Predict the structure.
Amino acid sequence: MAEIILDGVRKSYGKVEVIKGVDWKINDGEFVVIVGPSGCGKSTLLRMIAGLEAITQGEISIGDTVVNELEPSERNIAMVFQNYALYPHMSVYQNMAYGLKIKKIPKDEIDKRVQRAAEILELEEYLDRPPRQLSGGQRQRVAMGRAIVRQPAVFLFDEPLSNLDAKLRVQMRLEIKKLQEDLGITSVYVTHDQVEAMTLGHRLAVLNGGVVEQLGTPIEVYEKPATVFVAGFIGSPSMNLLDAELDDKGGAVTLAGGAKISLPEPLGAQGGRSVTFGVRPEHLKDIGGDANSLRLSLNVRVIEQLGADTLVHGTLGENGTELVARLEGIRAMAPGDVLDLNMAAKSIHLFDSKTGRRLG
Amino acid sequence: MIEHRPIITVLAHLTLILGIAIVAFPIWVTFVAASHDAVRMTQVPLPMWPGDQFFVNLNKAMFEGIAGAGGIPVGMMMLNSLVVALMIATGKIVISLLSAFAIVYFKFPFRMGFFWMIFLTLMLPVEVRILPTFEVVANLGMLNSFWGLSIPLIASATATFMFRQVFLTVPDEMLEAARVDGAGPMRFFWDILLPLSRTNIAALFVILFIYGWNQYLWPLLITTDASMFTVVMGIKQMLESAEQTTEWHLIMMTTLLAMLPPVVVVLTMQRMFVKGLTETDK
């Protein structure tokens, strides 16, 4: 049980800075997910917490101890790797017991912990087998078992599900969530998967270019993205982002295609600048809507039927900006149709074009 | 390609039988010669079928040796050869494992420089550096000793290179997992790397044992004391020292005996040997 505190943490390789100052407090028992595109430094950050990468600047503490100079094994952490990193020549039992054996924990205590972990993870009948005789999901569970038996203060997960097939991923995702809730161990989980990011953690950190763009609950991040990057990254299909001009009074925006949309709550002082106008595809409707709804008309180009939903790709006006709408159910329409869309005023997002920051 | 045409099958078998005959004939001649007495071996034509002196010759060669060649029992030469071959094989494997471990897993100044220096020694086999090596060994007082016979042959760039390649196939996460588990460098080497290279070590052992066993030039140069003769050079000594008639029956028996240990090693370690050369799954 421990909280993790990152204080001005930076990492450079030579002159290239990959982590540009991260300040964080992860509470005791909290499950934090780090999400971001490839190369954003999310794995590096995790590996710095684990002690596998040196910290260039700043301080990381786990519990009450500054761990900058400590070896991974001294940090009271356990890590689950993307490719599991099981020892191929050892049985499942030996894999789980190896770390404890090195710590010189008595044999019967090791046995008790391994049996307990095997029970939790339903691995009892596989304890004598080598990892190569196990399926991907089972190997993943062994890797988690190896983490559990250490009884660490912190769990670190480095994209643990990305080597599994889609069906297994759903199942393991639930298992990890449940496991974390049952054990109540502070956890940091790195992923690039949207669904894992939204569902697993108590809080979500969106990392881009070595900077934390936003840290908040998944719903906060979804409903109030702090920057254009977060807005485009979280959500699938991603948010429609259109260039627009905010008028001087901050009361209306004009889209690049010419469509004018008046804002329900004028932005006043922030008026008179270029903005990025965002609306999520799932917030565009072709039915309903009331007097307060904002309206757009879409020239349909491509239709994708997903069964549960229909994705309509089109342009605003004849050759205007591209836009995607996600409509419920199966819709009959054809390319060339003109579709009238409406959206609730509260579902739109405005960002400053220069800084990328959220307005209002 | 699978075909079922009888002519092809017959032809294939004939080719194989011919090949085996060519390889096996000299061995057969050796065996036959080793089973006759000295007199029969001087008569023409040479015998093609085994005689009745096999065990007599075996006994004489093993425990008495050839009088004209210093009278060293072949049994003793074989023991010398065995010790030298084992020292060379084990020494090479231990040193190569450790140097490959250092080069792959540790960051130290001029790491690649050291690697290439090791690699360059490929160009300097014993035959090339034989005189300076002899001087060094002589100055160290290692002539006529097991150390002198084995140490100059122990350093091996090939084995170092091979283990380097093996270690490079071990995923980095394995090292990281071991670090999280609290294994120090030597512990990681002993508990993880060594078991993972088991089959490669076995394959290398087979090759190196035979290499050590077959050494001829080097032992010839540094052993003057007959009690340190190895069997391969011993055979040559037997031929040269024969002031009287060459004792072909005993020489052939010695040859036969000299062939045995490599065969035994290959046969017993064959499985692992093949696995070590072909297995890629890590």
The longest strand of chain A covers residues 294-305. The two ends of chain A are 39 Å apart (CA to CA).
